[in-house]
Amino acid sequence: MMTIENEIPYSQEKIRNDFPILSLKIHGKSLVYLDNAATTQKPNAVLNAQDIYYREQNSNIHRGVHYLSEVATFEYEKARGKVKNFINAADSKEIIFTAGTTASINLVAHSFGKTFLTAGDEVIISAMEHHSNIVPWQMICEEQGAILRVIPMNDDGELLLDEFKKMLSSKTKLVSVVYISNSLGTINPVKKIIDLAHHAGAKVLIDGAQAVAHIAVNVRELDCDFFAFSGHKIFSPTGIGILYGKTDLLDQMKPYQGGGDMIRSVTFEKTTFNDLPYKFEAGTPNIAGGIGLGAAVDYVNTIGIDAITEYEHSLLLYGTEVLQQVNGLRIIGTAKEKAGVISFVLENAHPHDIGTILDREGIAIRTGHHCTQPVMQRFGIPATARASISIYNNREEFDMLVRGLEKVKEIFG
Q1: Considering 71, 371, 381, 402, which one is annotated as catalytic?
Q2: What CATH code is carried by the domain that includes residue 353?
Q3: What is the mean pLDDT of residues 7-36?
C-alpha cells in the first residue's frame, strides 16, 4: 500500500480512519470507494460539526435575538469566511451559499442572463460540459434570443483553443467552462480561457465542482467573474454549494429568487432588496450544510491542498498504468493535464455490467454517461465505467479494481 508519509502531515491510515464509512463491508468485502467524482465521503470532523449544530445550536439564522440564533448565525457566517479565504475571494459578500453547483450556474444564467443578454448575443460553453452547464444556458439563450456556441475538443479530450479564439467576438457576453471534466479528468487551461474572454469583453463563469477538492483555487489570481462548486465534492454534506461572484457584477444582477432574507423591506407596492450576499439567498438556508462545509474546508486545510494534489496525481499515474495493462480496456480521456478521473470501456462488457460485477467485489465505481451525453456522443460510445479518486484512496484499491476487471473478463470473454 502506498503511504503518504513525508507528503502530508498524516499517514494514509490516519486519513482513512477519519472516514467511518470506509470500514463498511459490502457483500462481505471491504469497501473500495472509487466514485468520488459523484460525491466524496465525509470525515468525522464534518459529521461532528453537523451533529453539534443539531444537538446544541439548532436555530434559524439572521433573524433571532436569542442565544441559539446568535450562535447559529455566527457559525454559519464563520463558514462563509472560511470559504472566502479558501478560494481567496476579496470579500465575504462575494460568497453566496446555494444548493450546489447546479443551483449556482442556474443563478448566474437567470440573473446575469436577464440583466446582460439580449437578442443576437452569444454565450460560449465547451464540448465537455456537464449537463448542468449546458441546459441552463440553452434555456436562457432561448428566452433572451441569444446564441449558444460550443468549443470543440480533440480525441484526447482537450479543448481546441485556436477554435475558441475564432469564436470570440464583440457578441460574446459570457463564457462558461468546466475547470476539470467529470467524465474525462481533463484539467482545462482556464486562466488562458479567462484572459482571452476578457480581452474580447466577455465575462467568465468557471464550473469548479471537480476542481475544488483536488487543486488550489485562487479566484483573484484566475480573475474569473464567477466560480461555482458543490460542498459534497469536497467532503461536506449534500445540498450546499457556493457561487463566488465579483461584487460589481453581483450588484448589477437582480435576485434569482424572492422571499425571506433577500429583502430589506416589503410593501404591496414595492420591495427593496438586501445587500450582498443575502440578496441572492432567499429563504431558510441549509444551515447545517453550511457549517459542515466550513468544517470540510478546515479539514482540507489541515492536510494541505497542495499535498492532496501531489498525492492524488501520483495515484492517478499508478491507476492509469495498471488499468492500461488490462487487455481490451481503453481509457477515454487522455489529456496531458488530468486530475483523478479514469473513464474506460472494456471489450464485450457494457459499463453497467462492469459496475454490477465490481459491486459484488465491494468496489464502487460510476457507470453511465455521467451527465455528459455530448461527451459520449463525441467519442462514439453510449457510456463509460469511471474510477475517480480522493485522498483516502490508495494503490492497493487500484490493484483490487484490476482483479475485479479480470473477473468481468472471465464472465464476458
Answers
A1: 371
A2: 3.90.1150.10
A3: 90
